[in-house]
Design goal:
Number of domains: 2
Shape: globular
Number of helices: 17
Helix content: 40-55%
Radius of gyration: 24 Å
Strand content: 5-15%
Length: 471
């Protein structure tokens, strides 16, 4: 049964603000979910006996897309291309899906308007979610406050950055996934990618739940502004947009001794730790600079414009968000198998503890707030210095020096070959030998984090698939 690609019909769902409750969306979601059950890991439907059912589900998906398309006029070319990609997939016997034609038409970075919505349907895997490339459907809307637009238009330009809020979704996003990247989508060839999206509502919601529980568990007294963010989802979302805007652009800026798109390389996982932490600490550093500059203007008696006042407030909140997400959530989220983000959180906590900025005494956590900013920036300086020096080093020497930096703060696994000193045959061999010698859990959790993990595990697990309304 061929899939029709005729022109869109009028939608019976008339309000894009409530489209997630419409019959058309629910039909699309149900059909995509049923289709997932027939797909293999690579996205194909391998059993010919399943093809008639797959065709029916695809027909339902396409009919729903046609019905809903008029509600999303800014995505007209994309939603017009989707039926053709589905039709080609079905006509080809449901092999590995190729949605390149519709992907190149989807350009959400051109519509960074606060509250604008998108209907998104692609065969894809979801990072930190489903590893299978299945047809997923979601409704999302842009988060683009005026103060963030001002930052992006001036000192923090990043035309590829898209900030979104999840409205409804299929099973691939009923997980820990908080990103939408075009490279996860099934396609016949790799185009030049022009956007990358992050769901700051999910980031903010799980931050609020985890950090509130961790602060209670550790008996940490939170500053008023930090406490306010735990109570206010909108405030937290906008804070995460500012953080992610600066973080995302940092991957392509600075003294980089390597390809900034590090995912293409095979190397010890702790190199990814330093790169992700470098980007977060750059966002922290920039937030400190913004806050101090605007505070100085206020102290001089100058009245700030509304967007400047918003920027000032969120610059302070970004610092709290980076600090608490890194030291509370990252180390105890995910497995201990090459967990590079977890290691970054461990490193930041241990650095601040060694600087006597963080104290854990009498089963109570305390922080010397007046010392935090400079101490965090100092760790960023150490990573930046490593990068700058490594421009003149062989790759494997950079790896060794990176390990030296981390192990000067964190204690390696007692069985570590790296900590004992790699044997000469590894040092003289190809880089693969270095990477193979790294343990899955090269830097185990400290006793502090082991205890925190036991108490926080149910809270961490409860954030999978979290929605902003449930934070």
């Amino acid at each position: 049964m061929p899939v029709s690609v005729e022109a869109p019909r009028p939608a019976t769902a008339t309000d894009v603000r409530t489209v997630e409750h419409s019959a058309e969306w629910l039909r699309l979601k149900a059909a995509a979910t049923a289709l997932q059950a027939l797909q293999s890991k690579d996205g194909s439907v391998p059993d010919p006996a399943d093809h008639p059912a797959a065709e029916r589900h695809v027909e339902s998906v396409v009919e729903a897309i046609r019905a809903l398309a008029p509600l999303f006029p800014h995505d007209e070319s994309y939603l017009a291309a989707l039926p053709a990609d589905f039709a080609r997939w079905a006509a080809g016997g449901f092999g590995q899906p190729d949605f390149l034609d519709s992907l190149v038409q989807f350009q959400p970075q051109h519509h960074r308007v606060d509250g604008i919505r998108h209907l998104i349907v692609f065969p894809m895997y979801t990072q930190n979610g489903s590893p299978d490339r299945h047809v997923e459907a979601l409704i999302a809307e842009a988060i683009w406050p005026d103060f963030v637009a001002g930052l992006e238009a001036h000192d923090f330009g990043n035309t590829l950055f898209v900030s979104l809020r999840l409205i409804d979704f299929t099973a691939g996003y009923d997980t820990n996934s908080a990103v939408l990247f075009p490279e996860t989508i099934g396609m016949r060839e790799i185009p030049r990618f022009t956007w990358g999206a992050i769901f700051q509502d999910r980031e903010a919601a799980r931050y609020r739940r985890v950090v509130a529980a961790a602060a209670d568990t550790t008996r940490l007294t939170m500053p008023d502004e930090a406490a306010a963010m735990l109570e206010d989802q909108d405030l937290a979302e906008k804070t995460f947009v500012m953080w992610d805007l600066i973080h995302d652009r940092t991957h392509m800026r600075g003294d980089l001794p390597f390809d900034p798109f590090m995912i293409k390389q095979r190397m010890p996982f702790f190199l990814y730790t330093l790169e992700e932490l470098r980007c977060d600490l750059t966002a922290f550093r920039e937030a400190v600079a913004i806050q101090r500059a605007l505070d100085a203007r206020v102290a001089a008696g100058e009245e700030l414009a509304t967007t400047e006042a918003d920027t000032l407030r969120h610059a302070g909140l970004v610092q709290y968000a980076i600090l608490f997400d890194r030291i509370f959530r990252f180390p105890i989220t995910g497995s201990r198998v090459r967990n590079y983000d977890g290691l970054g959180g461990q490193l930041l906590f241990a650095w601040l503890h060694r600087k006597h900025v963080i104290e854990w005494r009498d089963v109570e956590l305390s922080i010397r707030w007046e010392l935090v900013a400079d101490a965090v920036v100092e760790l960023g300086d150490a990573i930046n210095e490593l990068y700058w020096e490594s421009i003149d080093r062989p790759k494997t020497v950079h790896w060794l020096k990176a390990y030296e930096l981390i192990s000067s703060v964190l204690t390696p696994n007692p069985a570590s070959r790296w900590a004992a000193g790699l044997p000469r045959e590894v040092l003289a061999g190809p880089p693969k030998g270095y990477t193979d010698a790294v343990m899955d859990d090269e830097f185990p959790l400290s006793m502090f984090f082991e205890a925190l993990d036991r108490k926080m595990r149910p809270v961490i697990e409860s954030t999978a698939g979290i929605r902003a309304t449930a934070a």
